[in-house]
Amino acid sequence: MADPELVRFTTDNGLRVVLAPDPTAPVVGVSVHYDVGFRSEPEGLTGFAHLFEHLMFQGSESLEKLAHFRHVQSSGGTFNGSTHPDYTDYYEVLPSAALERALFLEADRMRAPKLTAENLANQIEVVKEEIRLNVRNRPYGGFPWILLPPVLYDTFANAHDGYGAFEDLEGATLEDCAAFFDTFYSPANAVLTVAGDFEVEEAKALIGKHFGDVPHRPAPPRRSFAEPAPTRELHGEHQDAHAPLPALAVGYRMPDPINDLDGYLAYLVLASLLTDGDGSRLQQRLVHREPLVVDIGAGAGLFGPFEARDPDTFTITAIHPPDVSRERVLAALDEELEKLASTPPDEQELKKVTARWAASLHSEHDRLVSRTLAFGAFELLYGDATLVHRLAGRMSAVTGEAVSAAAKALRPDSRAVLVVKPAGAENPDTTEGTEQ
Band of the pLDDT at 425, cuts 50, 70, 90? Predict the structure, then answer.
């Protein structure tokens, strides 16, 4: 089946719209992406972007608390939201007959969410409990996405804890919420995506009906989060009371995901060559042949690829037995990177990886919710939702020489190494996220 034609336009109040009709199943996906994420939250208010995502589900101009949940679920639909480094998204997937309901719900909270002291206090506690569950009381919680950035980066935007410190969350005020909403939650700072079973002209009319009177506010100037890459190896340590084994995370800077996409894609292919599947290079050497680790992984982006502008992070993580030193693991890693840097992967190895990537992208975007969210994210970050359809082809075109160049750039003198020590390990007096 050919990729469906996308319809893209901007409404009078600045809302960018992507329509992706597909009549193959009687369902629709609706998403709204706002151009604000962890990196845009104010200094001293760590975790605020994620907290605000929670608040957007707590009622709106026309609806009481929990009404959003009830209206979607009673239609047989699902919904959620998530916060990323450079955007926050919200979505619903419903039967196609419920398209107008989803558009009304998103427009209503874009117009005026219900920001009350009660809702704020309640959601602060919900987020704190989420942090306890996912970070503080879990082995390797926050590893590496919370723990590695303060070692690799210097600026608040890039280095801080996007989940939030309790004291910052508890200090959030309704005035902070109102200012955040007024700054970032405007039509001109958002992308609305509708995908699935609908008629384009009908969708346009419904969008005009529900979003047309949402007041225009100028989008804030887009900040650059650029900072110099490290010129030496940086080190940090973290004591983990729940971790059964030592771990380490190695972080490197990557090419600009937006302005050097092909360079960025080479790093994704490199990550797969290193750790994707039992036949990958680091799996074969460090897990099966030597063995030095019990788990090894590599990837682009702290949350995954295509979720951030520049700068973005290439990570390699390993969990290893206590009797294996981090130096042995790092030495083996550097040797494998040097092999790839000096000798590009042969065509068979490269094609196996790129074909797997292409198949994975096609499979992921077969799911309506993934396709809807991808269109919105790529329109927001890249200014072009149609890139979703071309991504597998771009990935398949990555050359062995490009992968070799990526491996060559992953140097020990321009990386960050985070060590996670289990409770009771030697040298317990360490400082989380410090350069040494």
Answer: low
**Averaged pLDDT, 344-367:** 93
Give CA 429 to chain center in angstroms: 32
Whole-number percent of the chain with pLDDT over 90: 92
pLDDT tens sequence across 273-318: 999 999 999 999 999 999 999 999 999 999 899 999 999 999 999 9
Residue 1, exposed/middle/buried by CB under 10 A (0-12, 13-18, 19+)? Answer: exposed
Instruction: State pTM to two decimals.
Output: 0.95
- H-run or E-run covering 203: helix 200-211
Burial zone of 94 (CB within 10 Å; 0-12 exposed, 13-18 middle, 19+ buried): buried
Which residue's structure tokens are 């992706």? 20
Q: How far apart are CA 95 and CA 161, in angstroms?
A: 38
Identify whether the C-beta of residue 312 lies closer than 8 Å to the C-beta of residue 300: yes
**Contact (CB, 8 A) for 26 and 199:** no
Tokens of 356: 């797997």
Which pLDDT belongs to residue 66?
87
Phi-psi region of 254 (alpha: psi -120 to 50; beta: other; left: phi over 0): beta
